[in-house]
Write a structure and sequence with these properties.
alpha/beta; seven-stranded mixed beta sheet; six-stranded parallel beta sheet; 19 strands; 26% strand; globular
Length: 358
């Protein structure tokens, strides 16, 4: 079958090969025919080495498809079922799951160390234990979440990561208060979803911050009340908050420099929500006086900060009701053979989300 493979960490291009085999099928597993997958910035971060991932590997974790085959002991799925790929499934038994913090379950991360694919007898891993830049993938049954027949594959793929992450940051982690002021730094697919979440919660002012003109224009269509480049944030803070700072600031880039900027633009007693996934050697510096004196809440948000399955269901309900726009997030479409074009679109910021149709 065909799959896009990164041979070595640090390479900028993927090679689309037709001799890759999905492996690992057996009890408790399912084989999924991937139909659509989004390109998430985390895929680029794994390719560059910012996020740890053994190689060679098949990127992709924001996918959807249909069940081809189920292994023994799988009773909740059958061939033909439409599913969204969940890269962070809950085991239901660990301390985090028992506390109701299923987004902190480590079971999914353990999958990342087991090869999903094989080529010429050599192991090939799947990013985050999945690897959706492939025609087929074998995953634990818990990684394949059934979706209704009326949800298109491209929409379902977005719900698998970016939409759930951004919406959840606003709805679950921050629990944005009605009438509040919000700034979102980084307005790709996740940032735009955070903007939609803040709008749903009734934020009065939502300032989108991004260096790319097209993304700022998109942010206004999705609910931002104003959009500025990074150098315009100080003036926006003055205009919107009288210089006090925003009630909520979402950092959706994953860098200490932007997290520090987000902190400085959060009002005293306000909330900084860290959504971007950054590098282990990139440290955010805060002095102990400001940490105490400003009483700003710093809230990391992992995969939307809530139960993933409920978040999927909520996103579908909001989409059906016309309360969120998911179709508009897909600004480009390419076949698997054009995956490197999609990478360029992400790197230059010309795409909110590119759908890879497989």
């Amino acid at each position: 079958m065909r799959a896009a493979v990164l041979h070595e960490i640090g390479q900028e291009k993927l090679e689309v090969l037709d001799d890759v085999e999905a492996v690992g099928f057996g009890p408790g597993k399912v084989r999924v025919r991937v139909r659509a997958t989004g390109l998430c910035h985390s895929d680029l971060s794994a390719m560059s080495g910012v996020l740890p991932q053994p190689g060679p590997f098949v990127p992709g974790h924001e996918g959807s498809g249909e069940i081809l085959e189920v292994g023994e002991n799988v009773t909740t799925l059958k061939p033909g079922d439409r599913v969204v790929i969940c890269w962070l499934p809950a085991c239901g038994a660990c301390p985090a799951c028992r506390r109701g913090q299923t987004q902190l379950c480590l079971a999914g991360f353990m999958n990342a160390g087991t090869p999903n694919f094989k080529r010429s007898g050599a192991d090939v891993f799947g990013f985050a234990g999945t690897g959706t830049f492939a025609e087929e993938v074998v995953v634990d049954a818990g990684c394949a979440v059934p979706i209704p027949d009326d949800v298109p594959f491209d929409i379902a793929a977005l719900i698998g990561c970016g939409v759930t992450t951004g919406l959840g940051a606003a709805l679950n982690t921050a629990d944005v208060a009605a009438g509040s002021s919000v700034a979102v730094i980084g307005c790709g697919g996740v940032g735009i979803s955070a903007i939609q979440g803040a709008r749903l919660k009734g934020a009065a002012e939502i300032v989108a911050v991004d260096p790319v003109d097209a993304r700022r224009e998109s942010a206004l269509r999705f609910g931002a009340t104003r959009a500025v480049p990074p150098e315009g944030l100080t003036d926006a803070k003055q205009d919107v908050t009288g210089g006090e700072g925003f009630d909520y600031v979402f950092e959706v880039v994953g860098r200490s420099a932007t997290a520090r900027t987000a902190y400085e633009n959060t009002r005293r007693g306000g909330t900084l929500v860290v959504v971007g996934a950054g590098a282990m050697d990139d440290f955010l510096q805060l002095n102990m006086f400001e940490l105490f004196f400003d009483e700003k809440r710093i809230l990391p948000s992992m995969y939307g900060g809530g139960d993933v399955l409920r978040s999927y269901t909520r996103a579908i309900a909001l989409w059906r009701a016309g309360r969120i726009d998911l179709e508009g997030l897909i600004t480009h479409r390419v076949p698997l053979a054009g995956i490197n074009e999609a990478l360029d679109q992400m790197r230059t910021g010309t795409a909110l989300r590119t759908c890879i149709e497989i």
